[in-house]
Amino acid sequence: MKRLLLAASAAAIAGMAQADRYVMITHTMGTDPFWPVAETGGRDAATQIGAEFEHMFAPSGDMADMARLIESATATMPDGLVVTLPDAAALGQAVASATEAGIPVITINSGEEASKELGALMHIGQSSAMAGHGAGERLLAEGPVGKALCLNHEAFNTDLVTRCQGFFDALDQPLNMIDVSNDVAQIKTRTAAALQSDQEIDTLLAIAPHTCEAAAAAVEEAGATGAVKLVCFDLSPGVLDLIEAGKVDFTIDQQPYLQAYLAVTFLNLYNTRSGMIPPEDVPSGPGFVDATNAAAVREQAGTYR
Amino acid sequence: MTQVMTNMPKRTEADRLDRGGRLDRLKRRPEIGVFLVMAIVIAAIAVASEGNAFNALGLKNNLSIISQFGIIAVGACLLMIAGEFDLSIGSMIGFAGMSMAMMLKWGLPFGLGPATPFTAFALTLCMTLFLGWLIGTIVVRSKLSSFIVSLAFLFFLRGLTEVSFRVINKSTQISGLPDYKETSWFADLFGGQAFGWVYDIWFRLGGNANRAGEQWVAGFDMRVVWFILVAGAAYVVLSRTQAGNWIYATGDSQASARANGVPVDKVRISLFMLTAFCATLFAACQVFETNTADAAKGNLKELEAIAIAVVGGTLMTGGFGSVIGVVFGAVTFGLVANAVFFIPAIDGSFYRVFVGAVLLIAVFLNESMRKRITGGL
């Protein structure tokens, strides 16, 4: 009996040792609705391949804290690391030491430029400049665009500024951006204020779903419905309602679920299929959601989309 | 008692302070410093925005932000007069917003069925008042600084909010709820509009018209009404009731207040419950107006509430402050935070610079006023 138990527990331990362990470290502060979607993607992939999955983040949003997290995750010797790189200068050292220790690393979401240099296998994400550019191009294809304004809820986030910049590059206009804060009441009043102070503005780019919803209310309030076009980034049920109601032209989906799902899947293939890996970076977006596919996306918004 | 009063001469001991004319008396009001700053800010913004900041929509929006700040600042002010701080206001807003939106989306806890705006609000208020009571009780019992205890709750409540969102909702944002203010009078009390007649009259007088010439703005946000109610009630309590005297006495010197029979502990606990109530009100107005909630709601609002109370002339050390001053402070702070966006020539990112400058100027003015009034205390 005792021997049987021992054998069983030994088998269990061996089984546990065989199960791969993947750790994802992101720069979320825990409050952004974007990252739970990515986490679901990573977890689903891990469940499908029978691996363990952990998601870690520094609630302070401090890059130094995030670098410590990467270092301590490296110390536990996982079978693969998935990291975001919003600031390659601050995180580069930690990522490089992980790759030097022989841990396969895939960067997702941000940090495309630095990914290869730090020894990561590949990058999965949506280039912010490309996505912003895509939004601008699509608008131009629909018709002439007058003066545009970008509503930024985190004006100090360089990656978000790049979204705005790419958009204005496509429109061939100088960057015109305001800091609308993260407070929904203030997003609305500041957007309405900007629309009033400059009547020439006929296009708004909101780079987050909560900004998008508040901006739609502001457009309505400023009496500019129909005169001002609103395009957005990322998804929420509210944004889908607005798209179906014709108040938002389209929104850009960078498909965060795909970023973590593919990263875990690719790491597993790399580990179990003798280093199999796509030779190029894989873009996860921009995907467009407009009136034609809003209904299909709705059911999964906030969880998978 | 009445006999003594009638026998007394017309002049009383307090009259010795009453020298000089009306202007002189006005100059010695504690709110005069922040009033000056407010007047300058209003004038400067009106000129710089070419009147846009105070047109029909501008006025509505500015008042909306002012009221939002004012509601929590009044609570913070009363608590500061009693000598305590509440750093958990912002996280309490996040918690209350999460709780209400979560119940509206996922139903009441313990399988009590779907929530109505009233039950969601009432249940949330019970929880936040309990949390306020808990913070107050810990401060009173442990004799720890309220700064530390409420700081702990800043982290605790924000974390709890985030975890609840992630575990129950799988996303840190709730949106796409039905528009409750259309169907429920109770939701309309928080998220609807009020004083529509002001805008109706304005429209009849020829203003308040949009590009198509139709009536533009229908009314002020309900939070303006709540701000007036909260500030009015706080003013009456503070200046006309025994409870008001208790609050001042508690902040001035706890030992002597206690020796004079002031229920110091009860006063402090109730004020922590008041700030929790104000935070819930703030959250309810946002949730029922926009039908959304996210885990970042209310972030940093505790510091803004304290800043406004200080701009309004409330002392960090307790025992001194006025509700009128806080109302002026909220107007100043709200305008600076919002109206910069009416001025195309100034980059919106500058608003924090202005907020910082105004904070410092107002505090300097308040300090010199206070020294003059109290004779250098």
Describe this structure in words.
The complex is a heterodimer of chains A (305) and B (377). Chain A is an alpha/beta fold and 305 residues long. Chain A has 2 domains: 2-125 and 256-273, Rossmann fold (3-Layer(aba) Sandwich), CATH 3.40.50.2300; 128-253, 3-Layer(aba) Sandwich (Rossmann fold). Chain A is built from 12 helices and 12 strands. In chain A, the strands form 2 sheets. A 6-stranded parallel sheet of chain A has the order 2-1-3-4-5-11, sandwiched between helices. Chain A has a 6-stranded mixed sheet with strand order 7-6-8-9-10-12, with helices on both faces. In chain A, strand 1 (21-26), helix 2 (34-49) and strand 2 form a beta-alpha-beta unit. In chain B, 68% of the residues lie in helices and 2% in strands. The longest helix of chain B is centred in the last third of the chain and has 27 residues, at 264-290. In chain B, helix 3 (32-48) runs antiparallel to helix 17 (351-374). The two termini of chain B are 34 Å apart. Chain B has 377 residues and is mainly α. Chain B has one domain (32-44, 51-374): ABC transporter involved in vitamin B12 uptake, BtuC (Orthogonal Bundle), CATH 1.10.3470. At the A-B interface, helix 2, helix 8, helix 9 and helix 10 of A face helix 4, helix 7, helix 14 and helix 16 of B.
